[in-house]
Amino acid sequence: MFNFLVSESLRNRQFVLATAAILVIYGALTMRALPVDVFPDLNRPTVTLMTEAEGLAPEEVETLVTFPIETSMNGMPGVTRVRSVSGVGLSIVYIEFDWGTNIYLNRQQVTERLNVVREQLPRGATPQLAPVTSIMGEIMLVALSSDTASPMDLREQADWVLRPRLLTIPGVAQVIPIGGEVRQYRVTLNIAQLTALNISRTEVETALRQFGSNTAGGFVDQHAREYLIRNIGRTTRIDDLRNLPVAHRNGISVRLSQVADIDYGARVKRGDADYMGRPAVILSVQKQPSGDTLKLTHEVEAALADLKRVMPKDVTTAVLFRQADFIKVSIDNVLKVLVEALAVVAVVLFMFLLNWRTTAISLTAIPISILITVIVFHLFGMTINTMTLGGLAIAIGELVDDAVVDVENVFRRLRENKATALPEPALRIIAQASQEVRSGIIYATAYSASIWVRAARQSGCDEAAEHLDD
User: Which of 225, 254, 275, 420 is placed for a possible disulfide with 280 were both Cys, Cβ 3.0 to 4.6 Å?
Assistant: First the structure.
C-alpha cells in the first residue's frame, strides 16, 4: 500500500502540491477557531447530585439522604459506578456513566429516579443537579473587596450584580460566590412578652412562614366580566415584617415587633474569604465542557470591566487565578519547540548535505503535518490542551527524524544514480529510495507510540491510555 502511495504521489505531483496547499490554508483557518482548554475530557460522563440537609450529622446524612439516593441510582442503563461523600448537612453523590453516553440524557434519567426517591428523604432535603462542567472547569477566581463596604454588602454585590451578569455569558456553567455574609432576617423572640400575651412559638412560626406571599381570593363577576381577586403581600421591607400580625387578642392584632426584636443578620457560615488581609468575596467562574477557555476568559474580563460602571466606587475586583495564563505558557512552549526544531533541522541538514533543496523539503514536513493534525482535531471535536500540545511537541522530534531519514536516502540515491554511466529516471530512483526506508520508519514510529501508551498505563492513567490507543 505504501509503495502505491509513493508511486502515485510522484506520478501526480501537481495534485499533491495543490492538496497540501489547500490543507495548509484550511488548517491555519481552523486553528484560529479551535477550542483551547487545560486538559481533555478524560472523565466518564458524570452527573453530580448535591443535597443540603441542615442540622444533620454526617452519620444521619449518610443513612437518611445518601443511602436512599445511591440505592435508587444503581441499576440505571449505562451506570458504571456510584460514589458519594457525606458531611455535616451535605450529601454529594457522583453517578458515572459509560463512555459515549449522552450527558443530557443521563441527567434526564437521574431526574426521573429522583422523583421516586424524594418522598423517602427528610423534610427540606431537596437534591439538586450540579451544572455540567469540564474536568478543569474553574477558569477564574475573582476577588471582590472594599475598604469601607461591609462583608454583607460585598456578598450582595456578588449575588445580585456580578453573578447574574457572568451567567449570561455563553459557555459559563456556574459562578459560585465564596465568603462574605448572606443577609437574612433575624427575629429574636421576647419570651416574657410571649408568655404575657399567651402566644406560642407555633403561632409566630406560622405567621413568619406566610410572610411576603401572595394569595388568591377567587373571582368576581362584574359587568359580564370575570375579575381575579388577589391579595398582594409580597415584600422584602423589614418594616413590613415588624408590622406582621402574629395573633389576635381581644379583637386586637398583636404585631411581631411587640413580641420580638427584628433586624438583619448574617447567615451561619462554615468558611470565609479574604483578599490582601481584608474580608472579601471570591467568585469561582466555571465553564462548560465545550467552552473555549481563552475566549471565555476574555469575555468574563470584558464583563467585569463593564460592571464597574454600576458598582460602588469603593468596591474593587481583582483576578486571583487565571487558567488562561497557564494555557498561554503551554502554547508558547510548543511554538518555541517548533521554531527550535525547524532551526536544528535546517542547520544539521545543510551542514551534512550542503543542499538547500533537501533542507527546504524537510522543513515543510513540520508545518504541514501540524496543520493537518489541527484539521483532524476539528473533525473529531478535540481541543488544543496541554496533553495534545505535549503530544505534538514529542511528535515533532519523531517527524523530524522521519523526514531526515527519507530525504537523506533519496538525496544519496539521486547522487549515486547521477554518477552512473546510464542514469535511470529520477522519479523511479526517488520511489525506490523512499520505499527502502519506509518500512523502518513506520515500525520505529509505531514502536515509539506503543512505548508512550505503555508508560501511560504504568503511571495509572488508564483512561489517557485508552485515548492514546484510539
Answer: 275
